[in-house]
Amino acid sequence: MYNLTSWKNGRNGVIAMKVGDVRFHNFKTADHILAGIEFELPDDFGDNTTRVNGALMIGKTNNTDAILESSSPKGLIGPRTENFRIENSRFHNWHWNGAAPLSSCSHCFSCTATDSGARTINVRNLTFDETVTRRIRYGYPYKAIFRDMDGSLTGKGAESYASFYQYHLN
């Protein structure tokens, strides 16, 4: 899918539930209450398939409103399964009320979510503007692993990782 612009759609800009080799190219999202893009269950087609490529994700524009100001949205909520990639994407204006460009485990809070294990989201070539002070807000059960293929997420270099702080990881 190519070139979707989604602005002020309420809950989500776009959501993909159970999908296979689906790729969102050059999507632009802004001013959403929960998330700009959300992927729930990509099927098992391998690391180089289901992905978001070339997204522009804006937390809020100058045309904000009270509902958005009181929410804590995420730019992109990753799936609760493996084999998902985010690449060549930019994130702007994520600086209020716990908002964050990235999150994890779509719909894991649901009583029908039977899988709550750690999942890896592969990322590369991400750009964050100066408003981004918190890059990831982990979703329950806080077990996602972000594999930073080039260091653009963590600043720690290629093949670095980000995960929710757990004492036993020390």
Walk me through the structure.
With 170 residues, the protein is mostly beta strands. It has one domain. The protein is built from 1 helix and 14 strands; from the N terminus they run E-E-E-E-E-E-E-H-E-E-E-E-E-E-E. Strands 1, 3, 4, 6, 7, 9, 11, 13 and 14 form a 9-stranded mixed beta sheet that branches. A 5-stranded parallel beta sheet has the order 2-5-8-10-12, with no helix packed on it. The radius of gyration is 15 Å and the shape is globular. The model has no long low-confidence stretch (mean pLDDT 89).
User: SSE string, helix = H, strand = E?
Assistant: EEEEEEEHEEEEEEE
Give the integer mean of the pLDDT values.
Answer: 89
Stretches where pLDDT is under 50 for at least 5 consecutive residues are none
Taken from the alpha-carbon principal axes, the silhouette is globular
**Structural class from helices and strands?**
mainly beta
Helix content: under 10%
Give me a quick take on this structure.
By secondary structure, this protein is mostly beta strands.
What's the layout of helices and strands?
Layout lengths: L4 E3 L4 E8 L3 E3 L2 E3 L4 E8 L8 E3 L2 E3 L7 H5 L3 E4 L6 E9 L7 E4 L16 E9 L7 E2 L7 E4 L11 E4 L7
Parallel strand pairs: 1-4, 2-5, 3-6, 4-7, 5-8, 6-9, 7-9, 8-10, 9-11, 10-12, 11-13
Antiparallel strand pairs: 13-14
Structure keywords:
mainly beta, nine-stranded mixed sheet, five-stranded parallel sheet, 170 residues
